[in-house]
Design goal:
Layout lengths: L4 E5 L8 E6 L11 E4 L5 E3 L8 E9 L5 E2 L7 E7 L4 E6 L16 E5 L13 E8 L5 E6 L12 E6 L1 E2 L2 E2 L2
Antiparallel strand pairs: 1-8, 2-7, 3-4, 3-5, 5-6, 5-7, 8-12, 9-10, 9-11, 11-12, 13-14
Length: 174
C-alpha cells in the first residue's frame, strides 16, 4: 500500500499544492500520500477513516515549522504540509479487501471510505488503502472510477484503483 498517489486532475493540465499548517496533536505522524482533513481551527490533520465532508486532499510534502523539508511530520509536532487540495484530482490507491467479496468491475462508480494502515517511517510513506468491502451507492469519501492500468494489476483483492473525491471540503457529491 502507498496511500493516495496523485495522477492528475480531470479537465486540467496540472495539479498544484497548497501549504497548510498542521499540528499532529492526535499522536499520529503524517506522511506523503496520507489523506488529510480540514479542522475547525483552520489547520489540516490526518483524516479519520470514514470521516465525512472534511477531506481536503492528499499530502505531497512535509515541512517543519521553519518550512524545512522533512521525510514526514512526526507525531505531536507542528509544521506545514503541501496538500493536493484540488477537488478534481484523481488518485491511485490500493484496495484493502481482505475478506468478503474482492473488488470487481461492477464496483466502478460506487463509493468507499479509506482505511488507515501502519505508515512506513523508513520510507515516509502512507499505508492508507481503500475499504472496498463496503462499496456503496450512497455517501462515502471516494468514488471508484476505474482500474489503474499496469501490467501487474487486475481486478480482485489489493487491486490498484483510480478514485476521485466524493466528499471534499470544497464540494460534495454522492
Amino acid at each position: 500500500a502507498f496511500g493516495l498517489r496523485c495522477i492528475g486532475a480531470r479537465g486540467e493540465s496540472g495539479v498544484s499544492g497548497t501549504h497548510w499548517y498542521a499540528n499532529t496533536t492526535d499522536g499520529s505522524a503524517i506522511m506523503e500520500g496520507d489523506p488529510v482533513a480540514r479542522t475547525a481551527t483552520g489547520q489540516v490533520a490526518l483524516m479519520a477513516a470514514g470521516g465525512a465532508l472534511d477531506f481536503i486532499g492528499s499530502v505531497e510534502g512535509c515541512y517543519d515549522s521553519s518550512r524545512k523539508p522533512l521525510q514526514y511530520l512526526t507525531a505531536n509536532t507542528a509544521g506545514y504540509l503541501t496538500v493536493n487540495d484540488d477537488p478534481n484530482t484523481r488518485w491511485v490507491i490500493q484496495a484493502a479487501t481482505t475478506t468478503g467479496t474482492a473488488i470487481a468491475v461492477t464496483d466502478v462508480f460506487l463509493n468507499c471510505d479509506h482505511v488507515a494502515g501502519t505508515n512506513s517511517t523508513a520510507l515516509g510513506q502512507s499505508r492508507a488503502e481503500l475499504n472496498t468491502t463496503g462499496a456503496v451507492n450512497t455517501t462515502a469519501q471516494f468514488r471508484i472510477e476505474e482500474l489503474y492500468e499496469a501490467i501487474d494489476n487486475e481486478w480482485g483483492q489489493h487491486a490498484k484503483l483510480i478514485v476521485s473525491a466524493n466528499e471534499h471540503a470544497y464540494r460534495t457529491s454522492t
